[in-house]
Amino acid sequence: MNILIKNVRLLEESGERKDLYISGSRIAGVGEKPEGFVPEVTIDGSHRLCMPGLVNGHTHAYMSVFRNYADDLPFEEWLFGKIDPLESRMTPEQAYWGNMLSFMEMIRTGTTCFIDMHMFPQMCVKACADSGLRALITRGLVGADRNDEGGLRRLKEALDEIDYAASKPKAHVRFGLGPHAIYTCGEDYLRFVAETAADRGLPINMHMAETRKEYGDCLLEHGMSPVAYVQKLGLLDVPAILAHCVYLTDEDMEILRAPGISVVTNPASNMKLGNGFAPVARMLKEGICVCLGTDGASSNNALNMFRELGLMTLSQKGAAEDSLVLTAEETLRIALDNGYRAAGLAEEAGRIEAGKLADLILLDEEAPNFQPKHNWKAALAYSSTGYEVTDTIVNGEILMRDRQLTTIDEERVNAEIARAVKDF
Ligand code: NI
Fold it and tell me: Would the pTM count as exceeding 0.85?
């Protein structure tokens, strides 16, 4: 489809207004009309700010069914006492609706791509195909060693899912392997996952150095930090997405600087579960590709990346007792440039330029919390609630037009979710 967004303010062009042309899945022109372009849809951009969609670097989309269900608990009790038992009773259908609920919130608050770790094969792919969102999907893997039956089954499901996606041409998805964490996977199993990822050319997506206990246990058991431990096992020899990284040594910082490694910080989840503050400002200064995620809706409890932007910058300033750490500009770089890099999309998307994928959002410039119009980057980092987003476009397809979702029946999703949680 050809879409013309007329006279829209572009975040990247220091707030200049231009016409934006989208053709098929890509941006066809910025300010300059491509030859022979005839718009099928025209959007008036005169009160709109346009920017690349946000990338949620770490979430578990199916988990929105657990939102506001298990709160104010210690980490171990939350995960092993409440969430794990419920998850083991959950059906794939419930997971599908959990995904769709998450996608409603993502589309409404300007997320166009997310990196997911899930426990329900195919459901996230199916929901992506139905909703039009872009994703990097990783099957969560847990196992003792390379002969562990459950561990092998989960790994097979991860690989089968890639074949399944080939039958869903509408799904804009890529894949990786998701070894859950060093405390849920044995050493030999982690080596095996690393070998499989290298063989298949897949990235890995893993929880890393999230809690003080994980860090301390790893030191006791393996005589090294969690980051050094997974490096030893070969997990960092493939592109790696490491969620959390709250507890790091100076040596870990060196390791994480390698190209191909992305760290995803999840400030709301870390604060809510009492896990502390990741050294985000330091990582950025060290040249580490640190991006931003929400984690699942059970430990956040929102999948709203604008809310997360604000929490990240404010918590970093507060924890460092320094108002200069993590400026609005740096905050947006983390959420945009580094997010696209983590998702493997740095070349293809993340900029409003001809030839890039049309993954864009429009925001209402006239929202009261955006007045007066002094500084758009500050408005986005400090003032935005996420619900100023009016239009969301992924791969050239309009998923929300003037605050109306076009691919998801919200009433149906809410009804299915209400039905699903009756079993809890
Ligand atoms: Ni997580």
Answer: yes
